[in-house]
Amino acid sequence: MPRFEPNPQRRPAVVSGASSGIGTATAYALAQLGHPVALGARRVSECEAIAEKIRSNGGEAFAHFLDVTDTASVDEFVTAAEEALGATEIVLSGAGDLAFGQAHAMDPDDFLTQVNVHLVGAQRLAHRIVPGMIERRRGDFVLIGSDCADAPRPRTGAYNAAKTGLEAMGRQMRMELEGTGVRASIVRPGPTQTAMGMDTTPEIIGPVLDDWTKWGFARHPYFLRASAIADAVAATVSAARGTHIVLTEVQPEAPLSTDTTAKD
Q1: Does residue 263 carry a pLDDT above 60?
Q2: In angstroms, what is the C-alpha Rg of the chain?
Q3: For the chain, where are the alpha helices, taking DSSP H only?
Q4: pTM
């Protein structure tokens, strides 16, 4: 039976959605592990600034425009990244956005846009990168899922559908890639403080929070930091060969209770 060869110490990584939030935090975390990082997003100037900070700290980083809704853009980004850093060993599919709204009320084109970013954008990356990983018989393809895949939240437009589909694709990829040496994994955040959805208005977010409270999605006010999700991604891709961390869900710890009564 063939034995697993250890992963190389230097593993070029591709991060989509790298200009903010979980993508940025993951780029920093992977760079701290000594991996070269290619940062891709539509806001390329932000990616350039992050890459420069990584380089100033002694790491390797490359920034390039990336629109995951455009197949040609994905190909151009990956080609440039691999020319700069080498064959891709790690992928973090983190591009995403959130537009609030009721499923029936959202404009179908806006609904489709969200699905295109979260779900089809990830498939575009997989289509471009995974065949090379299979040829080399190793690689980590990590999807940023969401706990809404288990418990959909009202008034989140296409986000529930897109993330549920994304996690289903991730589970499918795991089965299809078994035995190739390529690990498809899901990191599932709970409520996380990022820029996503933060450009909404009080008129929109008010009914959202009311419905979340009604359906039990606002148990406490604590949110995760993006760095907590990045730590989970780093742990997933750092697992020794022969070990596959399939799904990691990260939730914010609740605030300490003021009730000091001893529990039975």
Answers
A1: no
A2: 19
A3: 21-32, 44-56, 71-85, 108-115, 121-136, 159-177, 202-214, 226-238
A4: 0.89
